Amino acid sequence: MAFFTGGLFWFIEGVLACLAVVAIKIWTQDRGIAMPWWKWLLTALWFCLAGFTLAMIGTSLGEGEPRAAVMGGVVFGVVTVVTGVAFWRVLGFSRAQPKTNDHA
């Protein structure tokens, strides 16, 4: 367990978080999705909500409270999924078409 409180773990965590942000940026550019600041803000807020949901479940299980993990997981899980689907539709991710690379 000491690994998760050490600097190496948090370094790896930071690198993976940066890669995820860069991957989202590249994905939106490839799909031709315009991402103004408010779309980035909504995306970041949703990722925070999803992270909170997972952290709450993991913490509850770690503290030996499986009932709290299930109840909180159901409540926050449903909220996370519903807001995720709503944001997906509102932000227009499902309507964008991938760009084609016709360099030949």
Characterize the structure shown.
The chain has 104 residues and is an all-alpha fold. It has 2 domains: 1-31; 36-97. 73% of the residues lie in helices and 0% in strands. It is built from 3 helices and no strands. The chain is flat and about 50 Å long. The relative contact order is 0.11. The mean pLDDT is 87.
Instruction: Tally the structural domains.
Output: 2
Q: Point out poorly predicted stretches.
A: none
Please identify the structural class as seen in this structure: mainly alpha
Rg computed from alpha carbons, rounded to a whole number of angstroms? 18 Å
Q: What percentage of amino acids are in beta strands?
A: under 5%
Count of DSSP-assigned helices: 3
Indicate the overall shape: flat
How widely separated are the two ends?
53 Å
Order of helices and strands: HHH
The main β sheet shows up as:
none
The total beta strand count reads 0
Helix percentage range: over 70%
Mean pLDDT figure: 87
Provide a short characterization of the protein structure.
It is built from 3 helices and no strands. By secondary structure, the protein is mainly alpha-helical.
Detail the topology: elements first, then pairings.
Layout: H1 7-31, H2 37-62, H3 66-90
Helix pairs in contact: 2-3
